Give the backbone structure.
Amino acid sequence: MAEAARDGERTFRGIPVSAGVCRGKILVIRRNRPTVTKRILAEAEIPEEMNRLERAISETRTQIQGVQDRVVAAMGAKEASIFDAHLLVLEDRTLLDEVVRAIQHDKTNAEHAFHSVAERYAATLAAIDDDYLRERATDMRDVTTRVLNNLLGLEPEVDLRHLKEPSIIISHDLTPSNTAQLDKRSVLGFAIDVGSKTSHTAIMARSLRIPAVVGLKDISGQLQTGQYGLLDGYNGVIIINPTDQTLFEYGQIIHQQDTIQQKLRDTQQKPAITLDSHRVTLNANIEQAANADEVKACGAEGVGVFRTEYLFINQSELPDEETQYKAYRHAASVLKPDPIVIRTLDLGGDKFLAHLQMPAELNPFLGWRAIRFCLQERDMFREQLRAILRASAEGNVSMMYPMISGLDELLQANALVEEYKEELRKENIPFDENMKIGAMIETLSAVIVADSLARRLKFFSIGTNDLIQYSLAVDRMNERIAHLYEPTHPAIVRLIKATVDAGHRHNIHVSICGEMASDPVLAPLLIGLGVDELSAAMPLVASVKFIIRRLKLTEAKQLAEFALTCENAGEILGRCQEFARQIAPGLFEDE
Ligand code: PEP
Ligand code: MG
C-alpha cells in the first residue's frame, strides 16, 4: 500500500524477505501471458497435434534442465532442487492424460487443451489456503507458460538475464525460474505484489543476496518503468522519488549497519558468559554438513541442530547410509571435541522431496511429518540411524528426534536405535555406545508429558518455531495471521518454563534451537527462564553473544519472573526490548 509522504515521494510497505538497501531505476515487468485460442481439429490433424504437444513438452523439459544446470553451477544443488517440482509437472500422468484426451476426443488444439487442463489444476491448488500448495500452483503456471511459448513459437517474455542497465525489478510475481536467472550485476533488488517469507522466490532472493520485498499487493500496477526508487530489504519498504533527506537518512542507516557489524566482530570469539559469570552454551544451527566448517568462525561452540533433511532435499536421489555417514562424519570430525546434535529427518510440513511422491495433505504441518514419517518409512529411517550411529564414533555426536508428540513415538524410535546398535555390534562397526539421545519439544503434548519423556532422554531441545505454531494454532508461514504468531505470548513463556523445569527435575539439559534463540532481544528472557543452551542461526550468533556478555543472570531472572506473571504478549516483548536496549545499546544504535 502506498503512503503519502514528503515532497512527492511515495512509500510502499510489504514483507521484507532479503536484507540490504539499493536504489536505482525501476523496471516494471508486466507479464503478457501467451494468447490461447480454441480451434477444433479435423480428424486428420490429430496425429500432428499430438506430435506438437510431445515436441513442446520435450523442449520445455530441456529448457528447465538447462536453467537447473545453470542454477547448480551458480548456487548449488539445494536451490536448483526447486526445478525438480517443475519437471514433475511435465511427468504428471493425470494431467497429461487429460490433455491427450482433450486433443484426441474433443479435437481441441494442443495449446488450448494444455492451457485449460493445467489452469484448472493450478486454480484448484491456488484456492487452497495453504502456502505450499499455492507455490505448487505457481510452479504449474510457470511450466504452462513455457509449454505454451514452445507450442506457439514465442520467446519467453521475461528475460531478466539481459537487462540494459542496473534496475530494481517490479512485478506482480517472479517465478522461481525467473528469480534464479537474475544477474546480481544488473538486478539491484526486486519487489513483487504477492508472496511470503517462505515462498521459493523469497528463498532464492536470500540465496542470491539480492534485497527483496514481497507481498506489496498492487505495486506492479502503480509504478512505471523509468521511475527512480529506493528499496529497503531490512524493513520491507519501497520509496519512489526519494527526497534528498530520505537518501541522507538511508546513508545513515547503512553506516549504522556497518558499525554494528564491526562491534559484533570484536566480541565474536570471546566466551558466552554473563557479567556475573554464568556460562551459557551458545551453538549454531546448520543445514549442510559443509556449514560445520563455518561454525567456529561465527563464534559458536558447536552445533545445536543439524537439519539433516536438507541433505535429502539437495539430492536427485535419496542419500544412502554411506553417503549420509560421510556427511555426518565430516561435520562431527570438523567440530570434535565440540558437540554436534544431529536431528533425524524432519520431512513434511513445508519440506518435501520432489522425487519421493508424498501425498498432498490439507494440513501438512499436522500431517505426515518428521518422526511420524520416519516411523512409517522404516528403511529410510534405518539408513539414517545407522549412519548417525556410525558417525558417533568420530566425534561428540548427539541425536534428537523432531516433532515428538508423545511417549509412544519416543519408545518406538529408541527401540529401533537399540535394534540397529545390535546390528552394528554384530558387524563389528564402531559407534559411541553412550551417544546421547534427545527430543525436540515442539508440540503442546510433548510439554505436557515432558516428565515422561525426560526420564528416557539425555536432553530437550525446544523447537519454538513449531511450538508457537502448534500451541497458538497459528500457521508459521501465513502472512495474514503473522500478527498472532507471538513468541512472547504468555502461554509460550510458560510452556518454555514448564519444559525447562521438567528437564531439570530429571537432570537433563534444555536447549532452544528455534528462531527465538537467534533473537538477541529475547535471549535474556530465555536465559532467565533457565534455558541452558541457545542454538542460533549462524549470522546471528554474534549478536546473541554480544548481549549475553552484557547481561547479569540475576537481571535475566527478574525479567523472566515478570514475564511469567504478565498477561500480555506485547508487554512482555516491550519489557524485553527495553531491557536489551538498556544493557546493550550498541546492538541497536550507532554510538
Ligand atoms: C523449530 O521448530 O523451532 C525448529 C528448530 O525446527 P524447524 O524450524 O526445522 O521446524
Ligand atoms: Mg520444528
The first helix runs from residue 46 to 75. The first strand starts at residue 2 and ends at 3.
